[in-house]
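ZP: hey, is the 2-acetamido-2-deoxy-beta-D-glucopyranose complex queued? I don't see it on the tracker
AM: it wasn't, my bad. submitting now with these inputs:
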Amino acid sequence: MERERENAIYLKLFWGANRKTWNWWSRKTQSIVLILLIFCFIAIFCVISSWINLLIFSGVSFSKDKFETVEAPKVEEFPLRCTKGNETQICPRDYPTSHNPSRSSNTTCPAYFRWIHEDLRPWRESGITKEMVERARKTAHFRVVILNGKVYVETFIQSIYSRDKFTLWGILQLLRRYPGRLPDLDLMFDSDDRPVIPSKDFQGPNSGPPTLFRYCADEHSLDIVFPDWSFWGWPEINIRPWKEVLNDIKEGSKRRKWKDRVPYAYWKGNPFVAVTRVDLLKCNVSKENDWNSRLYIQNWIEESEQEFKKSNLEDQCTHRYKIYIEGWAWSVSEKYILACNSMTLYVKSKFYDFFSRSMVPLQHYWPIRDNSKCTSLKFAVEWGNNHAEKAQAIGEAGSNFTQEDLSMEHVYDYMFHLLNEYAKLLRFKPTIPPTAVELCPETMACATNGRWRRFMEDSMVKFPSDSTPCNLPSPFDPITLRDIQEKKTNAIRQVEIWENEYWQNINKTKDNSMA
Ligand SMILES: *[C@@H]1O[C@H](CO)[C@@H](O)[C@H](O)[C@H]1NC(C)=O
Ligand SMILES: *[C@@H]1O[C@H](CO)[C@@H](O)[C@H](O)[C@H]1NC(C)=O
Ligand SMILES: *[C@@H]1O[C@H](CO)[C@@H](O)[C@H](O)[C@H]1NC(C)=O
Ligand SMILES: *[C@@H]1O[C@H](CO)[C@@H](O)[C@H](O)[C@H]1NC(C)=O
Ligand SMILES: *[C@@H]1O[C@H](CO)[C@@H](O)[C@H](O)[C@H]1NC(C)=O
């Protein structure tokens, strides 16, 4: 009784109800109202959460008529399907074999795609015969045949590390991104460092050089450049797929603003792969000299023992300037250095990879002499610290290049156009070589484990692209090509003139003070 009265007083205060209505309330309506309230809450919650879902997953703006018709885009995923307890993996046959994207790309590919035409120019008149392909076999590590959208590979010799595996993995992913879009083709791939097809031996339009794909070339060779394996990961030294590293470096480089970074040039790597790198080490800070450079040796054996904790690329965006120097040939490190939002100090290179030819000195990087590295570095850092805004902009343009032009989507588009243009030139119908095996993600990834497996899964294309590849720009006309080269040469010469003036002044004051 006492308790009922307390309740009544409480409710009277609350609802303004008298004692009689309270009795009625307490027995029936109270529970009905409670249930109704709960229903209301659930209903409101559902509506709100479905709005939020729609907003997040379809990116629709809050407009009423769109609201009723919009659905999240249908995406079918095709995960890795390993057959368990069996060494022999079966290639699934239900991955799409044709590509019907929801939209067609309306963008022109980045400028470096124009070099595809230059790389294939030696065969533009003659086309590519089976004999030219066969002749490239001499140094090739493997041969790739694509027939009706399936990939077959014939291995001749073992590649260094897992270069061949991750390159082939990349080609498989390209086919998953654009199923049925690539024509039949047959190519030889040399996964070593240095180009081997000298252009001086093949002059004139019908000289018929062998067609050999590799990761880099130089101005004296006709090797066809193709993206290197590291875009899908380099498990031996724990460099993850490019797409992820790029994201991490982007985040990592936000940690320290350009102005707050160490105002010196930084390099960390293995110097013992090339004379020019050993030469670079002379520019390290010492008791006698400060060339504004801080150089470190990467000891891969030690770092692998420590699980690569000290070689995180995203933790290496701490200096205002980062040095790029090639190794035995082009260096995989180039894109990671450029991505840091630091000004790249680019030591003059002999070799080029598929994207570096369209980078412009003083726009994307600062050129450094290869025959007087220390004086060149000293001046570059001095200039940068005195022109902070300009130096910062060069660093940013280099990073933007890696974020935009060198995004994984563009790398796939580059491979697509290169292989497509190459296939157009073939004068024979490719056939499956007798000793070739069919490759698919299952035969590659399921057979491996640990870091290798993880990198493959992380870089796997899980569904076809929802648009066509970007549009391949037309070939350079000779005048444009000459202008581009001239612009580059002039920018480099300009820097060398500044450099000479700087050193003349210093030497003069030195001489004066000595006299
Ligand atoms: C493994 O797969 C192969 C090829 O499909 C098949 O012939 C074989 O019987 C399978 N073995 C087992 C143990 O399932
Ligand atoms: C493609 O780009 C052109 C010019 O930028 C534009 O006029 C056109 O509407 C675009 N088409 C599509 C399908 O987006
Ligand atoms: C360069 O100098 C720094 C600072 O003295 C030192 O820590 C580093 O080990 C040197 N690097 C090499 C390669 O000798
Ligand atoms: C780099 O990209 C950002 C974002 O797109 C843009 O705001 C900035 O102006 C670009 N910087 C340079 C130097 O191109
Ligand atoms: C000035 O001195 C430096 C260092 O001693 C030397 O390497 C360089 O050749 C000199 N440069 C000029 C332009 O006199």
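AM: back. The domain at 242-407 is CATH 3.40.50.2000 (Rossmann fold).
ZP: great, adding it to the tracker
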